[in-house]
Amino acid sequence: MTMMKTKLPAAGETLGRYTVERVEALPEMSGKLLLLRHENGARHAHVARDDDNLAFGVTFPTVPKDSTGVAHILEHTVLMGSQKYPVADPFFAMIPRSLNTFMNAMTASDWTTYPFSTRNEQDYFNLLSVYLDATFFPLMRYESFRQDGHRFEFETPDDPGTPLKLQGVVYNEMKGAMASPGSVMWRAFGKALYPDLTYAQNSGGAPEHIPNLTYEGLRAFHAAHYHPSNAFFYSYGNQDLRRVLNAIEEHVMSQFQPQELDVSIPDQASFGAPRREEITYPGSDTERGGQVLLAWKLGYSSNPDVNLRWSVLSDVLLGNPAAPLTRPLIESGVGSALADLSGYRDSFREGAFAVGLKGLSSGKAEEVENLVLNTLKGIATQGIDPALIEASLHQFEIQQKEVSNAGYPYALQVMFRLLGPWLYGGDPVTGLRLDAELTKLRADLKGGKVFEPMIQHELLDNPHRVTLVVTPDPELAARTEQAEAELVRQLSKDFTDEDRARIVRESLNLKELQGQESSPDVLPTLSLADVPAKVARPEYTTSHEGRALVGRVPQPTGGLSYLDVQVKLPDLPADLLDILPLYAFAVTRSGAAGQDYVQLARRIEASTGGISASVSVGTAPDDLNRNRLALTFSGKALARNAGELVNILHDVIAKPEFDQERLRQLLEQRLAGMKASVVQSGNAYADRLASAQVSPSAALDERLGGLTALATLKGIVEGAEGQAGDLNARLNDLLGKFGRVTELLLRGQPLLCLTALPEDIGLDLTSITQEFHGDAPVGRPQPGLAGRTPQARTTDSPVAFNAAAYLTVPYTHPDSPALLVLSRLLRSNYLLKEIREKGGAYGAAASFDTRSGNFSYSSYRDPNIARTYQTYRDARQYLNTELTERALTEAILGASKTLDPLTSPDTIGRMRFYGDQAGYTPEVQEAYKARLLKVTLDDLKRVMDTYLTPEKAAYALVAGKDPNEDTKDLGLNWDVREI
């Protein structure tokens, strides 16, 4: 960390044409918030913190009046060439030219945002220039609209005698999205609860309405909404605010005059009586695929008191398995898990609370309604235990104090927190600092009941309630496909020969544009000199405590303590290997040490920021066949509660207690979650299934977390064909296996890592370390590889997820860096162009896991199968084209980012400690980086010819149909099974 680079201005000061309206201290994050306004109406929030991960975002309120997806398609097209950077796709082109820690754009129901972050100052201003030019001065070519929005195209683009079809990246993305019950419910949620507002529209685009969007309509939407007067700018970090503002002034503000735009969202007129809405999604699981959700409209989400109180009440009611609303719903046995979208939502101008169940058969709406309403009545009448409220407030205290880049850059977490109230006319400070509201809430709690009246008046007595009934329809996918064909027929029924010729001409024009090479000198970039040669070496100490090795890492954690207990497992028999992920899922959600799951859950909520358990596969840096399994328990707590965190982890590790009924609930919850994830993350499942055919570590990973794991779980919960016994018998068998896992776990090799403030680093961990006994060696699991047969898994999806995989070399092998660079080059320069731009898929990737040695291709929400696999096969030919040193440099830059993940005090020491113990020491990592910087174009061709040849490929896909007919010309004979 470095100190702030310049003195911050005071309220009332002017910086050019900006006026500083407020300066507010942010003591929890050791920073300050500056709110500025430009003469043309633009708003700017700057968070000054001693953090070198610099961030920027520009957000526009966007309020679509239809479901053509105009805001979403606009988000895509503005990133496809601008006045200053007239290349085909500057957004994707900048990814390999940058050392960014985050780059994206996203469309919500009523806003669109363009955020990025990076630790390199030059990179920051490079990206700032590209983002500003893209959003305010896009070219918005007609061809870009047709590529990413929608277009007619003949099956053979230059042959008007072949069938006509609809195509487009967003069109195909939304076809995939609307096959997911969660996405279907989200769209129905806004429409049902706010039927008169913009939330009734599908801002992403409903596939049946997307073809109604015109190119002129897209341009008009941009002209109205993407103007500084309608913009909310954000910057963050230890940077010179004046330099950022000067760049924005020069690039954008000087080109615009103030403009009036009404993007206000009115109040939704309240309902006179509750309503019910029934919707379907394409699904075949009629026994367990239904959901019922009750949703209420509440007060303004920009009101900090309303927002805090509903956030707390939502956590009290639903925040853990023992919560007074969650527990009765799950224990009722009506459904398997809480419905999607359960909880408080502040992502609408007027907030919402929702709760329900999923894992339902049909006809359960009234039963779920009565269960929810009666449970709420009981809570309102009997009252809420003050200890539950205090435990929830404790969670908010942790959230306020924790500064972590885990999962998502903290710089952008801060942006989204302040955007909530800011965009709806509230005070952005309240998104970051809740001390005043917390003080008022605590005072009101001392004066009497607060939450029980809220339940009564704002839920039970509130007629603005909707019951959403979501059911799977096994015939819907076929009807949707027929409806799409009918839509094409209707839209094209009056086409003349000239219309058909125009479609051919436009298809060829688009193909020509996609084939053009952009000037590599137009976009800003970095050089290899910007790649850090060293890796982080945070200080830590180690000590042997019994059989355990303990690492203690002093870090500025803001008063939190983080504890990880990684146990390297002994050899496990096959039947225990298969249930290990179920053990990890259940062990922190069950009971322990004489407490049932309710008592333990309340104890965890009251004293910690949460605990978890996970299974991981480790690979030696020099041997892909030397694998190990580890079960890791993690938790965090305020320093004052760190001793109780140790006690809780001890009890969960050494004295877990499982009971049959609770286990049934947990397995049904996990099954519902895994089933839903297949349509959302089909690429990951296909990738695992392909890699399992060639790689020992991937075979383990697939067995633990892939479609094989899903099948194992499904067999336990639903019964497998030919499997004897009923559910109770299967659960009893599983309980016996869990007992054996616990015994083997305590014979494993424990590695503990404590990260805390220097004064808290001496925490006594003896209660955990003394539980490990025996001298069992660390296991070396050797799973058999799946046969090298193309694997197809069918599910309810109108689009496909296609993968191919190869086994290469371990981390320390000299060719590994070249394979990493090759993956970045193929992704950025070849696959995105061929599969996304030309093929219409939402995503395409080449990836290389440096530790497992797995190299893979994958596509996401892809309308094609055979075309995509042919593209994979043609990758070698791409390397024979005129590749430049610039392309190589960019691929090396992109590869280097994967070796320098964004860390924070909670993660930096943990990563170093466990990396060192696994053999990935700083010396090993720095040697890898040194080799990476010396990779040549010849190296890329050589490693491809050595490791990625067609005979070494393994294939897998997830799709909605049998692919054998599509791929018969490729010689692929698929083993097809239904998920």
What does this 3D model show about the protein?
This protein is of the alpha+beta class. 41% of the residues lie in helices and 20% in strands. Strands 1, 2, 3, 4, 5, 6, 7, 8 and 11 form a 9-stranded mixed beta sheet that branches. A hairpin with a 4-residue loop joins β2 (18-26) and β3 (31-38). It is globular and about 80 Å long. The model has no long low-confidence stretch (mean pLDDT 94).
What global shape is seen? globular
Largest sheet: 9 strands, mixed
Class of secondary structure makeup: alpha+beta
Report how far apart the termini are. 49 Å
Q: DSSP helix count?
A: 33
- β-strand percent reads 15-25%
Write the layout of secondary structure elements.
Elements: E1 14-15, E2 18-26, E3 31-38, E4 43-49, E5 54-61, H1 70-77, H2 90-94, E6 100-103, E7 106-107, E8 111-118, H3 121-136, H4 142-148, E9 151-154, E10 164-167, H5 169-177, H6 181-193, H7 215-225, E11 232-236, H8 241-251, E12 275-282, E13 290-300, H9 304-318, H10 326-331, E14 337-338, E15 343-345, E16 350-360, H11 365-382, H12 386-401, H13 410-423, H14 435-447, H15 451-460, E17 465-473, H16 476-492, H17 497-515, E18 541-545, E19 548-554, E20 560-568, H18 574-587, E21 591-592, H19 597-607, E22 611-620, E23 623-638, H20 642-654, E24 656-657, H21 660-680, H22 682-691, H23 696-705, H24 707-718, H25 727-745, E25 749-756, H26 766-769, E26 791-794, E27 801-807, H27 816-838, E28 843-849, E29 854-860, H28 866-873, H29 875-878, H30 885-898, H31 908-917, H32 922-932, H33 937-947, E30 954-959, E31 975-978
Parallel strand pairs: 4-11, 12-17, 19-25, 26-30, 26-31
Antiparallel strand pairs: 1-2, 2-3, 3-4, 5-8, 5-11, 6-8, 7-8, 9-10, 13-16, 13-17, 14-16, 15-16, 18-19, 20-23, 20-25, 21-24, 22-23, 27-29, 27-30, 28-29
Helix pairs in contact: 1-7, 3-8, 4-17, 9-12, 11-15, 12-19, 18-25, 19-20, 21-24, 22-23, 23-24, 27-30, 27-32, 27-33
